Amino acid sequence: MNCLNCHEWRVLNMSLSPPSSDLRVKAEKAVHIIGQFNGAVVALSAGVDSSLVAALAHKALGDRVAAVTAISESLAPGEIEIAKKTARGIGIRHIVVTTDEVHNTIYAANPANRCYYCKDTLYRELRRQADKSGFEAILDGTQLDDLGDTRPGLLAAKEAGVRSPLVEAGFSKKDVRETAHFFGLEVWDKPAMPCLSSRIPHGEEITVEKLSQVGRAESIVKRLSGARDIRVRHHGEVASIEVSQEEVPLFHRDGLMNHVKKELRLIGFTSVTIGPRKYPSRGHTAATGQDYLLPIINTSNH
């Protein structure tokens, strides 16, 4: 087993308390699992789960592993830069590929299992990259908490033979964040950032124009408010801003929402609503149309 020694556990941050023995066991188990493969590619998003897998895989396989990040119109602005920076910090070889799921007519129709078609496209590309490098496995960042949700992408992963070392080693989301923090990964507390297509209600067509509009709107809201965990749901001419409960007070500042609505109007939205995000119950997908506790703002009269 490629055990993690004390120096590696300390990484660069000497101020942190050592991880629990349970986390050490889980990390070492994940490294052992990955180390059995004859090379691997890691599906690296800009999130904490896949970043931790990339770090563990680099420990286990060295130069026999590569991280692959897919870019398309559904990738949120700024995510590719974060993925590149994370890969550099880990020291893992990083490959950027382009996928075209948005141009798949079934995906664009936005069915309830839309994510299946996205992941199917992704894993086919990852298999090509693995074969090109002579690597055996495809690894993803799925962890135990993901298994309680309705995630059509998990079926695509199963069909493609993708391995999930965090699940196999028993990592919860909390475990992932604590371990990533101790490893010195900057994304350890980064909010989840699903693809932009998730901002468009199922059944409504996904277009490049809508995705661009959502991406620009989220960048604007983050820049003006300083909030990190937001979504802008696309409801035709209505932009429904959802923000984490902890960051709601940021939007109560005088004049902020007037500024937000003016800028969102410039990119095609005539109305803006805002309120706290609700998180789905286990076994259900996230819903749109949340309860809005802040005033509804309609820009059509201004």
Distance separating the two termini: 65 Å
Rg over CA atoms, rounded to whole Å, is 20 Å
> Major sheet, described briefly?
4 strands, parallel
Unreliable stretches, pLDDT < 50, 5 or more residues? 9-15, 281-302
Helix amount: 25-40%
- How much strand? 5-15%
CATH-defined topology of the largest domain: Rossmann fold
Nearest-integer average pLDDT: 88
Main sheet: which strands, in order across? 3-2-1-4
Structure description:
This protein folds into 2 domains: 6-189, Rossmann fold (3-Layer(aba) Sandwich), CATH 3.40.50.620; 207-301, Alpha-Beta Plaits (2-Layer Sandwich), CATH 3.30.70.2210. Helices cover 40% and strands 13% of the residues. The protein has helices at 6-10, 21-35, 48-61, 79-90, 105-108, 114-133, 153-159, 165-168, 173-182, 208-225, 256-266; strands spanning 40-43, 65-71, 93-98, 137-139, 230-235, 238-243, 271-276, 297-298. Helix 3 links the parallel strand 1 and strand 2.
Q: How is the topology of this model organized?
A:
Layout: H1 6-10, H2 21-35, E1 40-43, H3 48-61, E2 65-71, H4 79-90, E3 93-98, H5 105-108, H6 114-133, E4 137-139, H7 153-159, H8 165-168, H9 173-182, H10 208-225, E5 230-235, E6 238-243, H11 256-266, E7 271-276, E8 297-298
Parallel strand pairs: 1-2, 1-4, 2-3, 6-7
Antiparallel strand pairs: 5-6, 7-8
Helix pairs in contact: 2-3, 3-4, 3-9, 6-7, 10-11
